[in-house]
């Protein structure tokens, strides 16, 4: 195998503060400004800034031979602007090299495809507009939140005009087929690019695991493995925060990344982006009628929509949509949209005992139960504001 | 291995978890083939105690010898309470005036003397003493036998009195900590209290979290009361003392009733703060929302848990809080204070700082108002409770015995 396609996910949610029963009707301040700023500053220092600097250096060193791609959620872009403008600048610099591809996604990193297609379309367009504004860039490849995918998502993305769509190379979807080829989704004129989770997780999850028999992972070892693989490309899809945040600097992750192109390029390896990979003729059609994702061992929706708290919360959120939009109040609509971010539902996940550790690590609240109570308190206040706005409209009309 | 256990009377004595803890540990040890010689201070018949007859001992199997010691001492007792007990008891049994110590100090001396006699005839390898009243006897047994002493702390005097310790009792605790070869604390919370209050080194203290009996058929009764038809029920259960923080629950209730009108608070137990609590309930206009049934016994305890929608343990300081696990076994989800040992081990629980009345009200309303939350919390915490069995703490105690004995051997 001589081709690597790298996509990094960059996302930060607007976390809610401990909004309590006593705030309902009294405070419209839902988001944890302090915490969001702290997290952004910390991740900027540990990951975004050093890793962006490293990638820039690699691009300068290796020229056109080294390319990577990013998907940056709108909520992350917003928080760069608010809390860490230097991060945004460094991304602009990267994109300006021409070696960096940006992917398209929902602005709010939401599950809207599953609940409201119109909202989904609007969030995707909002994201495109923002990417164009900030980077003067027009994405040609789509990836849905958390690689949530099915034939239907592919068909929808094809109809929106995308060249390719990304998905998890989940075993239960591939049935023994290789994730290293380009496929065509059932019923959609678009290319399907699949994550090689083995290689991706070697870096994203196992890199620093001393209990792993391959630890420590060296560039030479990685190159050897790649040599044994057949196909169009090994697709390495992972959270960008892997570098420096999930895998700390002292694990050697940055050094690994820096050495990778120097070792692989002389062997003839190409580092390409999804847009380029999508020019490859597809091997065959892949029928994935069910919904899958890249999360947990199940590779399904259970991290966000796996229990009744999560389902109740998201259903009530979308039930509020019509009322919120009817107010015509942009601030209210923006707040509602920030609540569609998938992380809010992830925090309510109770799968403690298998994948639980990961969930716990990322949970800003004491428990999933607290996450649920806080979210519901916020929804109650939002509902109250919608009600009040309607009353006001009625009063104005009555006054005339 | 044979352990000389200086413990306390077995359940269903319900004025605190110490008897249950001793019973469960003894049972767990005997499951692991450890022989136990148990010295049990036993309240005489007719004493003014609100507990029923001893039934635990005859349910134990394995190699356990029980030596009864008739005394007016009860765990968690203050010297004043002993005086009251002595006066009451001897007014009914004047002949016992000579038998029991005229005050707590004298009674503890008498207990020590009894231990001297017992160790002459009973073989053992290690001494395990529970809470301060037994510490001096434990140290004496150590001196006389040359065997190592492990002392078990279930609550410090500072804990029991919410920071107003009786200095004489605190001295007894300090003496035990200095003389013991090892200290077992029932939580990190207790361990940190020992370190803070008595400047004991962390290395000398091992934490053993409690487990709970898993096989009680009463857990499966699924009792519902007439109250359940129209009301949500919030339960608390335990001694009503300053340490238990029931006043915070009452203050939270004043908020909860505004959001959940059909709610009743059932406060099981008695204690020196009961009058004050009833007064507070009345001051806040909540009299129709509160029920004070006093102490319950046997099956009634399980019924109380099972009829409740949620159990609250708002303790200011709770060394462990076995009652929280008991609630889980009865399939009732819990809200517990972060100042409890149980909160260190139970994952599927709502947790609050005891003083944070608003947070408590917030979580109470959440769990009473959202059936999805209640259902998941109930299901998952019930499953989680299976992991708190009796063998785990017993095995940890055995490891501690072995390490203490090995250390002693290395010295000799």
Number of domains of chain A: 2
Reported CATH architecture of the largest domain in chain B: 3-Layer(aba) Sandwich
By CATH reckoning, the class of the largest domain in chain B would read Alpha Beta
**What is the chain-wise order of helices and strands of chain B?**
EHEEHHEHEHHEHEEHEHEHEHEHEHHH
Give the biggest sheet of chain B: 7 strands, parallel
Please state how the strands of the largest beta sheet of chain B are arranged side by side: 3-2-1-4-5-6-7
| Poorly predicted runs of 5 or more residues of chain B | 46-58
**Could you estimate the helical fraction of the residues of chain A in percent?**
40-55%
| Count of DSSP strands of chain A | 10
**H/E order of the elements of chain A?**
EHEHHEHHEHEHEEHHEHEHEHHHHHHH
> Rg of chain B to the nearest angstrom?
21 Å
Head-to-tail CA distance between termini of chain A:
73 Å
How would you classify the helix and strand content of chain A by structural class? alpha/beta
Q: How many structural domains does the protein architecture of chain B include?
A: 2
Mean pLDDT of chain B: 88
What is the average of the pLDDT values of chain A?
93
Largest protein-protein interface: A-B, 19 and 22 residues
CATH class of the largest domain in chain A equals: Alpha Beta
Instruction: Indicate the proportion of strand residues of chain B.
Output: 15-25%
- CATH topology grouping of the largest domain in chain A: 7-stranded beta/alpha barrel
